[in-house]
Amino acid sequence: MISFEGLILTAGVPIYQQIVLYVKRGMAAGTIVDGDELPSRRVLSALLGVNPNTIQKACRILEEEGLLCSHAGAKSYASVSPRQMEQIRRQLLQADARTLVEAMKQMGVTREEAVTLITDLWKGEEEV
Amino acid sequence: MISFEGLILTAGVPIYQQIVLYVKRGMAAGTIVDGDELPSRRVLSALLGVNPNTIQKACRILEEEGLLCSHAGAKSYASVSPRQMEQIRRQLLQADARTLVEAMKQMGVTREEAVTLITDLWKGEEEV
Amino acid sequence: MISFEGLILTAGVPIYQQIVLYVKRGMAAGTIVDGDELPSRRVLSALLGVNPNTIQKACRILEEEGLLCSHAGAKSYASVSPRQMEQIRRQLLQADARTLVEAMKQMGVTREEAVTLITDLWKGEEEV
Amino acid sequence: MISFEGLILTAGVPIYQQIVLYVKRGMAAGTIVDGDELPSRRVLSALLGVNPNTIQKACRILEEEGLLCSHAGAKSYASVSPRQMEQIRRQLLQADARTLVEAMKQMGVTREEAVTLITDLWKGEEEV
DNA sequence: GTGGTCTAGACCACC
DNA sequence: GTGGTCTAGACCACG
Asked: How far is C69 from C76, CA to CA, in rounded Å?
């Protein structure tokens, strides 16, 4: 069963997108593997405190991308091949890193400063 | 005069937020300093290819945060003290870095791998 | 025993409604008369390839309208008086005809054109 | 401006489908021609007493079928070629007539009886 | 119990 | 003012 404990919803960005991204990142990390069972719409909606319809939209998108397999009346399962996993991982890493680099450069931060900032934050979070 | 040449609008996220963030990052970088003049609503609207109302909304937000000083019928000027600049810089850097670290960790990326990814991307962009 | 051979399920409209309508039309046609036995839930479910719950819902509606008489653990029988049959027949015919006339008129079809269309289609189906 | 006065919403069938069908029938009848302006979402929603989102869904479907042309911030216009009009007309007429013939046959009505029913109803409505 | 759809109301970007 | 999107709640068919 896929766990959504680590998902912290942020205001201002569409909820269904956050759910889709969370699942994709889990697949990229290997936390979510092929055949994993997804909690039902109702359970997930209660767990995240959002409307079942919002969950449904996220699931529909994942299904259209071939990452989720769901049939009426039956449970839903993750459907991700090693090839897809690798592709997702690369895409997400590139997108995240690129966003940060763009922001840093625009703020006049040097590469060394950026790396220091990242490593410091990384260590700080590990202590928590 | 504040330049908006580096602003590349991304689809999916509110335009006025992108404008606000662009100005804030410029202030954090020192590119935009206290007293800098903002292009008129009309000019900016034409420059970015967006609706004047959208520009107006971004300006209103910046004004409410005390980062823009505008009087009716007159030009608008950046209003940022060294103390504000430092605060904005720290906030934005922390936010961006934290977002990346969270994403990387969720995807099971090690610190070394993340740093390598960042530095590589940084160099690659410099060549462009 | 009531036959359901002629029932062709259409997607998009609730199945239980289609079943109810099929039975009513059979009563209006005299194909289904008072005392006729209904196949069991299980058999009907298998015959139509539908969930037993859906069959159950259709039966409940017919029962509430007094057109079906079923006792726990026993078979179900059609319960329709000549008066009811005539009423159902008139209602359904009027409803169907009215729907068509409305549609035709809205599309600017003349009465002659409509009659020709109907008779042609009628003959065409008889050949099949 | 396209008029929706003749649209009477029926319960049990999706509202957006009824709206789509109404527009198509208008095109088939020549009542709605290429370039005709559609009332705004808000106006239509108030006129029909339904949610603007329901109107939006109907419009989206019409747009996907190439029968409506709408741009953000601008009015929406019907977009139907003579060829499309003829095609729609044929499809709708066939569908409506076929539905009626099936129903009538199932109820054991003869062709003559059906035609009489239709013509009588047609005259009756004309008097109204 | 499951997933899927329809209607509803609020918000956003744009003219 | 316009069209477009997101979230919400109720309902349906199904296993």
From this structure: 6
